[in-house]
Write a structure and sequence with these properties.
By secondary structure, the protein is an alpha/beta fold. The chain has helices spanning 3-17, 36-48, 62-70, 90-93, 96-102, 121-134, 138-147, 161-169, 177-184, and strands spanning 22-27, 52-58, 77-83, 106-110, 152-155. Helix 1 crosses helix 2 and helix 6 packs across helix 7 (138-147).
């Protein structure tokens, strides 16, 4: 977004939410029509005004992450929110996960449960076996696997209180290195 639009959007969000500061304000999608330096300059201004505590981005590949960070002089990008789960492994393949680890950024994983699309019976059998060994659910195994990656914070949907309780329980699961390696080897089925 252009500078003025970023500031206007932030002010509108603060009013709607009835708060004085947003903890993490993110550029949701890169816009190739607007120089990233203009957008990031607005984010720095919002931090200096105390309206935003931390700056994040979403769906940024490594080159754009580097450009966004280098265009700011006072702030550090704290996170990149990308789709990441057992089926969607592009953050591992395109270098985003490694970049986040090396630069102390949090990779915020959206759609961490793969919307229940883990297709093969082999994959489900493996996940179920691991879940049973830990007294856990499939969803908890998916989330525990992401948490085992370090620098990854999954943000699963929780439409009911039971989902929230289940999701929180994933933090108590310590997958064995062998289990992590088995899950790492899972591949999505070809359509």
């Amino acid at each position: 977004l252009p500078f003025e639009d970023v500031v206007r959007s932030c002010n509108a969000s603060l009013r709607r939410l009835g708060i004085k500061q947003i903890d993490l304000y993110q550029v949701h999608w890169p816009n190739p029509r607007i120089p990233i330096s203009e957008t990031m300059s607005a984010f720095e201004e919002l931090v200096s005004q105390g309206k935003v505590r931390y700056v994040g981005v979403s769906n940024f590949p490594v080159p754009l992450l580097e450009e966004a960070q280098s265009s700011m002089s006072k702030q550090e990008i704290q996170s990149d929110q990308v789709r990441y789960n057992l089926l969607e492994r592009s953050p591992e393949e395109d270098g985003v996960l490694d970049f986040c680890r090396k630069n102390s950024l949090t990779l915020v994983a959206y759609s961490p449960l793969a919307r229940g699309e883990l297709g093969s019976s082999h994959a489900l059998t493996l996940v179920d076996r691991i879940a049973q060994a830990h007294g856990a659910t499939r969803a908890q195994v998916f989330l525990a696997w992401l948490l085992s990656k370090g620098s990854v914070l999954p943000i699963p949907k929780a439409s009911r209180a039971e989902h929230l309780t289940e999701n929180i329980g994933a933090a108590d699961i310590a997958l064995e290195p062998k289990e992590i390696a088995q899950l790492d080897r899972l591949q999505p089925e070809s359509s």
